[in-house]
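User: I've been going back and forth on whether these two constructs are worth ordering. Before I decide, could you fold them both?

Assistant: Sure. I'll take them in the order you sent them. The first construct and its structure tokens:
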Amino acid sequence: MRDIINIAARRNPYVQLILCPAKVQGEGAAESIVQGIRMLEEQDVDVMIVGRGGGSIEDLWAFNEEIVARAIFESRVPVISAVGHETDTTIADYVADLRAPTPSAAAELAVYEYQAAENLMKEYQMRLSSAVLKKAEQNRQYLKQAALKLRLFHPRQKLLENRQYASDLELQLRSRMEEILQQKRHQFALYVEKMKGLSPLEKLNQGYAYVEDKKGRPVRQIADVKEGDAIRIYVSDGMIEAQVKGMTEEIQYHA
């Protein structure tokens, strides 16, 4: 009994022990053990140790009695059997919820170690705090990303993006139009130069003349006019009115 008290106090100084003395051998021992079990049941304890120190088989025989076995089996409170030494075995060991090899071992099984439990609680507290902080950080990051997405998909942001896109398109269009205009100006300049080479006025500036009859028809050959016809001769700075005096089919050029 002293071992149970010492071990229980060492493992958990806050545990409350209720001792129920009983005869454990001799005449009336079985009835005394049963009475103790019933009394502890009425106390509504958390766990019950039924045991005694070592002895001969005759000394331990009370724990083989049927009434003791039935009382342990029918107990509403969990029962740890701790009868004798590790090599001793009784019927009480088989019907109990748990068998301890010695009363000291029963005390260790029945009473949790307060310091270990306190350390475990501290560990759980640290884990819980770490989990809470981790979850809070995850939620903070989620809210940060959600706020970023909200800014990105906000109508005002979309409007700014579309406005910038339209501005970029306008710049590209202006640049392209300017490029096309430059190309067209260059082509037009080439066409103008070509047209100058084909223009009658340009030919007139080079010393050539344009002749037409009185009806405005061009005179390309001598067959287009006859002697006495009025003609108009266009030169670079004006028009000359003339009359055909005669015609020669072939002109001889002199060097």
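The second construct, handled the same way:
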Amino acid sequence: MPHGLTIDRHDNIWVTDVALHQVFKFKPGELQPSQTFGQRLEPGADKRHFCKPTSTAIASTGEIFIADGYCNSRILKYNAAGVLLRIFPTAPEILSLQVPHGLALIESLDRICVADRENMRVVCPRAGLYTLQGKKEPPLTITLPDMGRVFGVSAKGKLVYAVNGPTSTLPVQGMTIDPQTESVIDHWAPEEKLGQKFGNPHDIAVCPNGSALYVVEIYPNRVWKFDLVQPKK
């Protein structure tokens, strides 16, 4: 059951499969994976196993981040060859995750931002691409009373775009986030005056040239396209 889809800068396709408990890398035009992470149909919590992995993020350095989300609530980082570099959170790291559902990498800030779904927030710990990982350094944390359960995150430049899902009586909406100031600088959604609104968003992606973003929903199954404009002052 494929869950997460990422296309890296070399057009490789990365797929997380929550039924197989595996993550696959497909080179362009190939039908067989060139890399496989996890053990087929074997959920687990050790270094060789996943339990319903949710999302991936791939750095320009080739390093790989995998959200082992639904059961283990952790992020695993690998080098390009697939060698495990670290697992976080790891004590005494100041970070606690509860269903990390989406990942967005901001290389210029050396941050890996996480849709920390059941904690109803976005957290951005150090990615450790260009700087030493400061285990006692708290992550950048973005949370608001109306943030709700954050299902997806995507990044362009130094901004993060996030979308929540149904959460009690809170509005279902998209958010533009400035992680450096740990603030939400804009909210957005389809125009309800036209009879349109989000139902059950599950993921989000920004197109490579940064001109648009896409929100995918389940039940109903549909994709929304939004043109990206400058955030409100």
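Notes on the second construct follow. The CA atoms of residues 34 and 95 lie 32 Å apart. The chain has two domains: 1-88, 99-232.
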